[in-house]
Amino acid sequence: MTHRPASSALSRFKVLDLTRVRAGPTCVRQLADWGADVIKIELPETEGGGEGLGGPRDGSDFQNLHRNKRAISLNLKSAEGVAILHKLVRQADVIVENYRPDVKHRLKIDYETLSAINPRLIYGSISGFGQDGPYAVRPGFDQIAQGMGGLMSITGLPGNGPVRVGIPIADLSAGIFCATGILVALLEREVSGKGQWVQTSLLEAQVFMLDFQNARWLMDHEVPKQAGNNHPTSIPTGVFKTSDGHINLAVAGQTIWERFCKAVEPAWLDEPDYKTPKLRSTNRDKLNAAIEARIQAQSSKHWVDGLNKAGVPAGPIYAMDEVFADPQVEHLGLAQPIHSSLRGDTKMVRQPVRLSRTPSRLVVSPPKAGEHTDEVLRELGYGDAEIASFRKNGVV
């Protein structure tokens, strides 16, 4: 299989993928889904290239992270394997890795070595805590970054202790930020003609993601606390029980507050404790109790439909099966079909951005281990005899 781009947007770029687990593959998926020719490089199975932290190859997690790629096996512990990688680097635009700094240098795949081979190379690195500094050699893990980045201190119900969020947000955001940095570097290269090193870490990504909470500390020296489902500034906003479940309400600003009262309980407009945003904040618990008592009288659908009709943001709280049954999600076509060589006909979530001329598609299922090794080696100019020798000697 020659490269079948998922989009024409990035189809002129070749990307070498040395990543594992989640943050790195998330980064590379962004590039693959927009059409880059991604070559996933893995150890031969005889060198420990079997199931790793990313889970089984036919598992939904691995399949979702590694679509729209080709794959080769390459033993970077051998001199011949490193030589093949260096030959790939000469033709590549981007390489992405998430090795520890000491491992990169030992394998001769560090930025200094590879940029000397190809000065136009964009070298993307994702680590737990950064490429240098006192924690550079620590192993990185999403939940560790959530704790150190402050997220767990503001998540959960007050008084119940720190809580991690339900997705690997540090991993995912670090991957997306690294992909953004790579795209910026590619744009800059069009002017300078030079590559550069793009670095991010789980810790940096997590701290950045706190956004207004980190601004509250840096600018106002205010330490944000846990607020549960309550919004820290827009009141009343949160989760409220209905007769058959729960809904989210987002009553932000005086105008929406007035709409909300007219739709739910007009008498609240004249209640002295609720007259202003500041008073509603001071009397949050009293107001939330009053709202819940009223909301529990009707179904979730009743309130979601009625409040949205009145111009008040409200929505259901779905389980995953309900998410994909929602008519708006179905209309947006977020779940797209793809045929997997390991799982048959299945579906995956597309990129959440749509381009009018060069959309992203799910074109190629995740590759089998080393599926395109011979093909890629031939593209590099190796003959059948050389490839057979590589296999015999455990290079690929």
**Total E-strand runs:** 11
Structural class: alpha/beta
What is the average of the pLDDT values? Answer: 94
Low-confidence stretches are none
Radius of gyration (CA) equals 25 Å
Task: State the share of residues found in helices, binned by percent.
Answer: 40-55%
Report the major sheet. Answer: 6 strands, parallel
Q: SSE string, helix = H, strand = E? A: EHEHEHEHHEHHHEHHEEHHHHEHHEEHH
DSSP summary: helix tally = 18
Q: How far from one another are the termini?
A: 18 Å
Strand order of the largest sheet: 3-2-1-4-5-6
Oligomer: single chain
Overall geometric form: elongated
Give the strand content.
5-15%
Description:
By secondary structure, this protein is α/β, with parallel strands linked by helices. The chain is built from 18 helices and eleven strands. The strands form three sheets. A six-stranded parallel beta sheet has the order 3-2-1-4-5-6, with helices on both faces. Strands 7-8-9 form a three-stranded antiparallel beta sheet, with helices on one face. β7 and β8 form a beta hairpin. α1 packs across α8, α6 crosses α9 and α8 crosses α9. The longest helix has 24 residues. The protein is elongated.
